[in-house]
Amino acid sequence: MKIAMIGTGYVGLVSGACFSDFGHDVVCVDKDSSKIDALHAGRMPIYEPGLDSLVAANVAAGRLSFTTELAPAVAGADAVFIAVGTPSRRGDGHADLSYVFGAAEELAATLSHDCVIVTKSTVPVGTGDEVERILREGAPGRAHSVASNPEFLREGAAIGDFKRPDRIVIGAEDVRGEAVLREVYRPLFLNEAPILITRRRTAEMIKYAANAFLATKITFINEIADLCEAVGAEVQDVARGIGLDNRIGAKFLHAGPGYGGSCFPKDTLALLKTAQDNDVPLRLVEATVQANDLRKRAMGRKIVTALGGNARGKTVALLGLTFKPNTDDMRDSPSLAIVQTLIDAGARVTAYDPEGMAIAAPLMPDVEMKDSAYAAAAGADAVAIVTEWDAFRALDLARLGAGMTDKLLVDLRNIYRRDEVARHGFRHIAIGTRGE
Description:
alpha/beta
């Protein structure tokens, strides 16, 4: 099939590359000429493991191409996917749908044949209805079909998630839209990937409900971790104990400094705004958003407390800046609030991240970026693990401590065991566990 993908951001580029790897003919379109030029040169605009080689292979095979021109990209397309950004709108937290609606307007003016238009961007319930209205009014002679196909990709594992999905959700209002999307995803039938066919509004709600539930699960175990610290319980054992219950499951029960990234923060806010607009209270989601925001600065205060309650004139080395490993995404990363809390407390902050420093540096102008974990720790009074990169799981603790002024390890991801670091003379502060 011929597919056009509007947007070469995280969702658009990964989806386009994977569709082409299935054998479809895919053209990715983006107005940002610098992105397209970089892709033509083989440079990825995002860091995602395996994406560069996947793109290169399919470009070489002639199944994947990039352009800034919409008309030739959509000419003869069986399906056009809209995969543009929907960031939180300034001032009110609603999803900014201007890019989605802009794409729909351009498609109405450009498409010369009846086509299936698929919204892959994360959008509030009812967005597909508005896209359909724009297409109908902008191209009254056409019979376009508008469908919803939300993505469920984890940054750092997106290619595997796309090719081996838990489920494929298709929200369609007519037989044609459903049939085309079934054909698009036919290669995954061999993997017996479950396909859920719903109405369009239901598909849009599934995406938001899924992200809100996962965000709530993360926030729940973080609050349980705080209680564990207060009563002398071990949150990792608690998480295992409840996660073995099949009704609960073990995933997203890892206590830490709070969730961040491109999805959970903006999607929970957008869901709340939709609920408010419809006079439906979502108290659990409201509490989740508030608790997560408070937790990030609380983690900065946790480091200050570990330093004896006074960080002025002391140096803290942060290991990891991105919101999670295997990405360079800094959006709503807990490290942003942690850094600000430490700077406000008078601390000097150094940092190292395997992939995120180029993006982090302008966001953290007072932080000294270093070229390794050991360089960041040199002269530090404390090292704090903020992101659980694999590179931090087997640090040479003797080497790390040798250059430090004081051997204090604040493990905000519970990577290390206390007895393990104690053998190297470290004081160890973790999440959801008893004191030193």
